[in-house]
Amino acid sequence: MMKQKRKSLKKTLEPYCWLLPAFLLFIPFTFMPFLQTIYKSFFIVDSMGTLKRFVGFENYLYILKDETFVKAVVNTLVYVVLTVPVSKILGMLLALLANRRRKTSFIYETSFALPMAMAVSVTAMIFQLLYVPSLGFINGITGLKINWLTDPKYAMIAIAVIQIWLSTGYAFIFMLAAVRSVPRDIIESASIDGAGPVRQLLQIYLPLTTPTMFYLIITDLSYSMMMMSLVSVLTDGGPKNSTITIMYYIFKQIAAAGNYTNANPAAIIAFIMTLTATLLGFLWEKKGVHYS
């Protein structure tokens, strides 16, 4: 009887023992700083990080009235809407194109996956050259005369295109594995029954690859909500704050002005937005993701 209890206790504690090293790192470097940020967001804080005066929710009310912060929130949401679904759709389509194995498969598979091996800063500089209004490849081949990175109407779209290119390669790798895991007998049966490529996509491939698609969407949601690297390299939040994101707003408040009073509540609002988007994704997971 005692042996059975010990075995049962061992099985119960074993998963937590495996997680313990991760928690030992997360607690001091992630959880504690996050809790400190929440606490400090209710105070006036000087440029040295010293708490001066408790003000409650006044800091939150102040930045929610700040036009620059509101613009950063809107830009971040637009960026997420532009990049997350498009990159996943393109990754799925490329995976379907590469589904059938051939002798030359490694060539186009490598080409499709290449963006995920590119550093963000290097990619940003390459696209900056492509976007040059007078000599850039994009305007040259299309005949357009658009100032992609200096026109407020197009700057966010230009940055979103870069992120779509970067994310598509990552999505392709996962979606290719998911598409190739779909049983061939199901596809053959559907073909015999007269199902064309579009019907196979909608009724077979999409439902059976939803677990992978769900993972990609959830991870990319949080990544996109935290984006600032492309903005930092290419536009510095301009022109006219048309590309400033929440994370870049926080960075500017701290790096340029030492304004922790605004940066702390902005960080908490960014966390709440990301958490909300993730929870909405998990609501979709219950109804739209098929694990069998």
Automatic annotation (TrEMBL):
Record's bilayer topology term: Multi-pass membrane protein
| Domain ABC transmembrane type-1 residues, every copy | 73-281
Keyword set includes Glycoprotein: no
Listed InterPro entries? ABC_transporter_permease, MetI-like, MetI-like_sf
Q: Which domain of life is it from?
A: Bacteria
State which residue ranges cross the membrane.
16-39, 77-98, 110-134, 154-179, 266-284
Q: Where is the protein localized?
A: Cell membrane
Q: Which residues form a coiled coil?
A: none
Hey, which family's this protein in?
A: Belongs to the binding-protein-dependent transport system permease family.
Name assigned to this protein:
Sugar ABC transporter permease
The species this protein was found in: Enterocloster alcoholdehydrogenati
Lineage, highest ranks first: Bacteria, Bacillati, Bacillota, Clostridia, Lachnospirales
